[in-house]
Amino acid sequence: QQEGFTPSRSSESKQLIDAIDWAIAQNNDKNSPYYNKIDTKNIAAAGMSCGGLQTLDIAKEPRLKTMMICNSGLFNQSNANTAVPGMPMPAKESLKDIHCPIIYILGGPTDIAYENGMDDFKKINHVPAFVANYPVGHGGTYAKPHGGEFAIVALAWLQWHLKGDH
Fold it and tell me: Cβ neighbours of residue 79 under 8 Å, at least 6 residues apart?
């Protein structure tokens, strides 16, 4: 166990911000092995399932250049009671806080998050947004070698939005 680390049952949205702060601090620290090696102008936040909710929860973070929501989407008031306890529950209105391009990668109609993710996508009309669906359910293709088909889409999105590779 790491000194000063207290394990918890689940992660928190704030940890995404903490990770960004840490990376920027490491990039600026002359004693860090990461000194001047991190492109702090091109930061993405991403999450799968509950992690997607956490990513959406930090949508206001001004340092984000893009967001990736995998097998996730904000709950409607009618289905919020089906969420994992302790997960953030931003209201659908918080989608207006998104200020950068966003991609939803969903597992098709059998993905438990499909309806929520598609509803989000339909409501986002103020920033570039893309949705990809591959009919494999909520587990995606993450267990396949190199992340499977989902990884191909995710990497292409990141190469485009963080490295300008059209």
Answer: 115, 116
Q: Hey, which bits of 49-114 come out as E strands? A: 64-70, 102-106
Q: Residue 89's pLDDT is what?
A: 82
Place of tokens 């992340």: 147
> What is the arrangement of strands in the sheet containing 129-133, beginning at the earlier edge strand?
43-48, 64-70, 102-106, 129-133
Where do we find the tokens 């209201």?
91
- Distance CA(44)–CA(69), nearest Å, equals 11
The token duo for 93 is: 């209105």
- Element holding 114 (H helix, E strand): helix 114-123
Across the chain, the runs of DSSP E, i.e. the strands, are 43-48, 64-70, 102-106, 129-133
pLDDT digits (tens, 9 = 90+) for 38-57: 999 999 999 999 999 999 99
Q: What is the pTM of this model?
A: 0.89
DSSP code of residue 38: S
Residues 141 and 160: their CA atoms lie apart, in Å, by: 21
